[in-house]
Structures are given as structure tokens and as C-alpha cells.
Design goal:
Elements: H1 2-15, E1 45-53, E2 56-70, E3 76-86, E4 96-100, H2 109-116, E5 119-120, E6 137-138, E7 148-153, E8 161-162, H3 166-173, H4 176-193, E9 201-206, H5 208-224, E10 230-234, H6 252-269, H7 274-285, H8 287-294, H9 299-313, H10 317-322, H11 329-335, E11 342-344, E12 352-354, H12 368-389, H13 402-407, H14 416-426, E13 431-437, H15 445-453, E14 464-469, H16 479-493
Parallel strand pairs: 4-7, 4-9, 9-10, 10-13, 13-14
Antiparallel strand pairs: 1-2, 2-3, 3-7, 3-8, 5-6, 11-12
Helix pairs in contact: 2-12, 4-5, 5-14, 6-7, 8-9
Length: 497
């Protein structure tokens, strides 16, 4: 009601004639903006490396370089740093894959040194620690044997940077639309720079990077004239509205979250499987929604809903009934580990840390997984780039940039699902794969399941595949899940078993 009154008051004020003020006078000429002065970026650097994959030694070149971004007048406004791994001697015969992480505000180090790059540093799994060694080892889950890879750090992440002031940066780089436009151009420019326009091309994105991938594919396909052979969306943020805030009215966010909560409980019991999860999914689609919409006034419906939710989540039935069966994510992550004084991560409910204030009424802690991965990933990335490759920078490497998050314009009116449909509909040979960890509550898998259930067939069964693996948002931190992900990706690329 107060918001309504405020809106009416604002309308009334704008309707009344206002006395002339100094603001009505001609504006004084603005002083020219001071140029931003930054040290020049290092020249591109390349080293030779090797990795053993399935008993086979693969030699490749690792390059750290940058692409300069220019405005319509040719003025340099930004520089995007990339890390590329290329097997020499068969350039156009090999696919090339462009990789993006999310945030927005995350560098690509997570996919690079955790998921599919040639080397990895352990992070994101139960038992991993912020103080663990950041020394990289051969990655058995790497994709280097069947595709070259380019990991791109958007402006404001890693060592990538804007060359203009904050207001210009916000318009040029930090809106959902401009983000897609300039990153598409980075992909285009890299292909031109290295003569790879005739290679098969793929995109992979994690989290908000999964939001980017369909939109990048359609932008490249329809605006820049670059077709993608395949898209891989890792723990993607595909439908902001569906995965939105839990409210008392819509059952959708609650129904999407419930299977991920149940998966965490089943895993702790050693019962997690596609078969056990199928029962939860059927319940979430049907009886859960029906009883939810009947509301708390229907005691029998609320009793039924609360009992089933308690059984699936492993929470105290009395607690769940007090909540009318509506278990929010924060409550689940704190209460499900209450007996041990720990809290779970929103990215993987079975990655835990001790609650620093277990007696506090309100949660007061950082995320166990997110807070634990910054140190090893940052240290590993900086050592690789500046020490091993020798690409030097005086700047701080931003693994996660909270400034980017602060400046970001979250206009999500054009959803990636729209662009995914358009891109794949016009190209009968394009394939896509969406992958999730069962336990992820930040981007729950069931949201993607519901989205795909509404998709047209596009003339071929399973042109858009959905795979789930044990683990959470970074399921690839678990060796078995990493191996399964690699196997499914090889099939998508047509690389065989």
C-alpha cells in the first residue's frame, strides 16, 4: 500500500506545473572526461605443454593473449584476455570450443582448471580446502584430445579490463544485451586471428555462462555469420523467472527446488539414482502442486504436502509442518546438517562447513563451497598465466568480481530459451547438451527438465540432451561425474567412446 501511495504522489507531482529553476537554463558545457591511463597489456605468450589422457600423451600449445574491443569510432574501450589450448598440425580438422563461466562476474578458471582444461587443481568437492596446494596436475577429464579450447574472461574478470570510465563500462559491457554483443565479437575476432573460421565450433558455459551460450549462438549465427555445431550448458541459469524467489503464491520455485533437496538427502543415504529421483519428479509435477495451491487453509492438503516434503528432504517433520511444507533453501541447508553444527552449500548441499554462529536466529556465514574455491583457483590461474606462460600483469586477477555484479543491469526480457529455440530450429545439424549436478540448489536441474519438456521435437529425438550427475553446481569436481561428463561430451562431438 505504501508503494502505491508513493506512486500516486509521484504521478501528482509530475502533473502539476513546476516553477522555473536553474535546471531549466541551458546546460553548461561539460568538461572533457579524463582519459584512463593503464599500463599496456603484455604481448601474447605461448608455451608447449603435454598431458596424458587415457594413457596417450597429447602435446599442445597453451597461449595467453588478448582481444582489443573498439567502439563504432574505432576507439579502444576494453581488452579481453583468453587462454587457448591448441593441438598443432591439424588446426582446421579439429573443433574449437569457446568457454565461459558465469556470475556475471566470474572468470573462466572454473571450467578451465576444474572441468575440461588439460590441467586441473582440486576444488569444489567435499574435503577440499582453501589452503590446499594450487599446483596443477594432468586432468583425466580434459577435452583436449577431441577439441581445441579457448577460455574467455569477460571484461572485469580475470585480467580482462575496461579502458573507459564506470558509466561507459556499464553501457558497453555490463548489460545482458551488450555482454552478448561484445563476447560474440571476441569469438569472431579470435577465429579470424587464428584462421579457424572453417573449423567446427562449439560453445560451453557454466551457470550464467549457460545463460550466455544460447544467446551467443544465435547472435553469432544470425548477426555475425558464424554457425555453431553444438552447445553445452553446464548447471545453466536458463529461466530466471522459473528459478526466482520463493513466494507464497507460485508453486513453481518450490517444485523446482524440491528434487534437488531430495537428491541431497538420497545421496546421504546412499540411495541416489535416476529411479529414486523419478518418483520425486512425478510428485513435484502433480500432487505437490495441487496440494500447494489449496493453501494452508486446507489442513488435510497441507498435512499431506508437509509429510511428503519431510520424507524427501530428511528434515524434522514437525519443522516442515510449521512451515506448511514450504521449505526455503536457506532453511534446508542449515537444518539438514543441524546435528553436526554444519551448513551446506547452495551449490552442493553435501559440501559443508561449520556454522560460525550455530546459535544465531538468522544465518550468518559465507557459502562453504564458494568461499573455499577462491584461493586455489586464483593462485593456480595467476601462477599459470604469469609464471608458467610468462604473460605478465600488474593487475589483480579477479576470479569473482563483485564490482561487475554491482554494476550489472539484470534486464532479462530476452530469455536464453527463446534464442535456443531459434538457433536450433534454423540449423538441423546443431546439437545441444544441458548438464547438471543432482544436488545443486543455485540452478536446480528440475528447471531445465521442465523447460525441455515444453520444447518442440525439432525433427530429431534428443537433439537437446539432458544429463544429471552426482554432485552439485560443480559436479565435475567428483572424478566419476567428470568421467561421465567427458563421455557424454565425446558422444556429442562425434568423437566415439
Amino acid at each position: 500500500m505504501r508503494l502505491l501511495l508513493a506512486a500516486l504522489a509521484a504521478t501528482a507531482l509530475t502533473a502539476l506545473p513546476m516553477p522555473a529553476t536553474a535546471a531549466d537554463a541551458p546546460a553548461a558545457k561539460e568538461a572533457p572526461k579524463a582519459e584512463i591511463s593503464l599500463p599496456p597489456m603484455s604481448e601474447d605468450k605461448t608455451i608447449d605443454q603435454a598431458v596424458t589422457v587415457d594413457g596417450r600423451v597429447i602435446k599442445y600449445k597453451a597461449t595467453v593473449g588478448h582481444i582489443t574491443l573498439r567502439d563504432a569510432r574505432g576507439k579502444a574501450i576494453g581488452e579481453v584476455v583468453y587462454t587457448a589450448y591448441v593441438v598443432p598440425g591439424a588446426a582446421t580438422a579439429r573443433p574449437v570450443t569457446f568457454a565461459f563461466n558465469g556470475g556475471p562476474g566470474a572468470a573462466s578458471v572454473f571450467l578451465n582448471m576444474g572441468a575440461i582444461g588439460p590441467k586441473r587443481v582440486p576444488f569444489g568437492a567435499a574435503g577440499d580446502s582453501a589452503s590446499d596446494s594450487a599446483v596443477q596436475r594432468d586432468n583425466p577429464g580434459t577435452w583436449i584430445d577431441f577439441t581445441d579450447m579457448v577460455f574467455i574472461d569477460p571484461v572485469g574478470t580475470g585480467f580482462s579490463r575496461s579502458l573507459v570510465d564506470e558509466a561507459e563500462s556499464k553501457k558497453a559491457f555490463y548489460t545482458a544485451k551488450s555482454d552478448i554483443e561484445y563476447l560474440s565479437r571476441v569469438v569472431y575476432d579470435w577465429l579470424v586471428k587464428y584462421g579457424r573460421m572453417t573449423s567446427r565450433k562449439y560453445l560451453i558455459g557454466e551457470s550464467y555462462g549457460g545463460y550466455r551460450v544460447p544467446r551467443l549462438a544465435y547472435e553469432l549465427q544470425s548477426r555475425l555469420g558464424v554457425g555453431m555445431s553444438g552447445l553445452i550448458m553446464v548447471s545453466p541459469y536458463l529461466d530466471p523467472a522459473a528459478i526466482g524467489e520463493e513466494t507464497s503464491l507460485s508453486p513453481l520455485p518450490w517444485a523446482i527446488n524440491l528434487p534437488a533437496m531430495a537428491a541431497g538427502h538420497f545421496e546421504r543415504q546412499g540411495k541416489l539414482s535416476a529411479e529414486t529421483m523419478a518418483e520425486v519428479e512425478d510428485y513435484a509435477r502433480g500432487e505437490f502442486v495441487s496440494d500447494f495451491l489449496k493453501g494452508a487453509k486446507d489442513k488435510a492438503a497441507t498435512d499431506r504436502l508437509s509429510a511428503r516434503v519431510a520424507a524427501y528432504t530428511g528434515l524434522d517433520p514437525a519443522l516442515v509442518r510449521r512451515l506448511d511444507g514450504r521449505v526455503d533453501i536457506r532453511t534446508y541447508l542449515r537444518e539438514v546438517h543441524r546435528a553436526t553444527g554444519q551448513i551446506g552449500s547452495v551449490y552442493d548441499s553435501n559440501v559443508t562447513a561449520y556454522d560460525p554462529f550455530p546459535a544465531a536466529a538468522e544465518p550468518n556465514y559465507g557459502d562453504p563451497l564458494l568461499d573455499g574455491i577462491i584461493a586455489p583457483t586464483t593462485s593456480a590461474a595467476v601462477d599459470f598465466i604469469t609464471n608458467q606462460v610468462g604473460w605478465k600483469s600488474e593487475a589483480h586477477y579477479a576470479t569473482l568480481s563483485y564490482d561487475v555484479g554491482r554494476l550489472w543491469d539484470r534486464d532479462e526480457s530476452d530469455t536464453p530459451v527463446t534464442d535456443l529455440r531459434k538457433a536450433i530450429a534454423v540449423d538441423p545439424k546443431m546439437k545441444a547438451m544441458i548438464v547438471h549436478g543432482w544436488d545443486d540448489l543455485s540452478c536446480p536441474y528440475f528447471g531445465s527438465r521442465l523447460i525441455l519438456d515444453q520444447m518442440p521435437g525439432f525433427g530429431q529425438a534428443e537433439r537437446i540432451q539432458l544429463h544429471m550427475y552426482p554432485g552439485g553446481h560443480m559436479f565435475y569436481s567428483r572424478p566419476d561425474s567428470s568421467a561421465a561428463f567427458r563421455r557424454d561430451a565425446r558422444a556429442l562431438y562425434g568423437a566415439g567412446a
